[in-house]
Amino acid sequence: MKIELAVLFGGRSVEHEVSVISALQAMENLDKEKYSVHPVYIAKTGEMYTGNALRTMSSYLNISEMLAECRQVTFVPEGGNVYLRTLSESRREKPIRIDVAFPITHGTNVEDGALQGYLKTVGVPFVGPDVLASAVGMDKYVMKTMLRDGGFPVLDCVRLMRGEKTDDMTHRVEEKMAYPVIVKPVNLGSSVGISKASDKESLENALENAFTYADIILVEPAITKLREINCSVVGDAYEASASECEEPFMEDEILSYENKYMDGGKGGKQGGSKGMASLKRKIPADISPEMRNQIRTMAVEAFRYLGMSGVSRIDFMIDCETDTLYINEFNTIPGSLAFYLWEPLGTPYTKLLDTVISLAIKRSRQEEDILFSFDTNLLAMSAHSGTKGAKSVKKV
Ligand SMILES: Nc1ncnc2c1ncn2[C@@H]1O[C@H](COP(=O)(O)OP(=O)(O)O)[C@@H](O)[C@H]1O
Ligand SMILES: [Mg+2]
What we know:
binds magnesium ion; Rossmann fold; 3 domains; alpha+beta; 396 residues; binds adenosine-5'-diphosphate; 7-stranded mixed beta sheet; Dna Ligase, domain 1; 12 helices; 5-stranded antiparallel beta sheet
């Protein structure tokens, strides 16, 4: 019997469009013998739709026309299963049972634990990290703090909140680190809101810019002689393995949204329909076997330490002046699901997708085991002893 798979994408996120590209690529590569695929597009309004038009890239040129051909749906738990149910009364269609949900979503609201919490509440197994690991992976400050606690190398940083006086903020930064510094929103991706500052005045501007995108921002020392190396990890907290390493190349000082998705960035030919897979990069990265080994080992250890699941991409920075390696960030649902880092090791995209889907099923079975072992039938006991029993209920 085929697995009924809902592929979720889009969402209320600045990386909405990138997610559409990633999801369409993945749907093309899913094994049709194993899965019945149901695309679920989350519009920027938060409404969810399903329909065949969602599978074609050209449909997205006119979204309202596309959605008129689709059905608005929602996930509904019923009798131990979860169904995708049509909302419109006039077009009641048979609800579709969903065995596994596969969020191929990037950014706020959809990669940060919010969507994962929704899927968990509804009760459908889902691919990728659980609620907490998703939230940790999205918040650059929390992630760094945890990694530092685990003994992993990360850059120092200062965390600033909207509402603090600008003078206090710049003072806190200058107290802790020297210029140049990098200013970034804690919870965005794709280089949105990120800029470099080399003195107090440019720091004030960079802060103002970052605060237009987020309430909490992070400032860290800028590495001037920087090499960036990325490595993907697939697995879960119990068992994980590392992909080939890549070195992405930037045209601007900061690897920008245009560099990442617009096929070569400014001046390059436009049309980023290949998403992250189209970025200028070198695979395998031109690094020593020792460095490759160190990065791949550290990527796996950090992935397991943070309790990740599915496919992540871990981005490293090398300070070439001091020859020091740092973990920069985790992408818990990376662009193009980082398939292009697995192909060089002989793992086709279809196989990668199978692996992450089976990890979702494995986790949901493990969770069921835990839940059943805690089934104490408390309510039945309370029914016998009346409400006074409630006084002694302890939440452990
Ligand atoms: N400390 C730093 N020093 C120098 N460049 C940096 C630093 N942090 C980030 N960058 C540059 O900015 C880019 C985006 O930063 P990153 O932390 O990866 O955020 P995002 O989540 O938006 O990808 C990086 O790919 C790198 O080019
Ligand atoms: Mg990055």
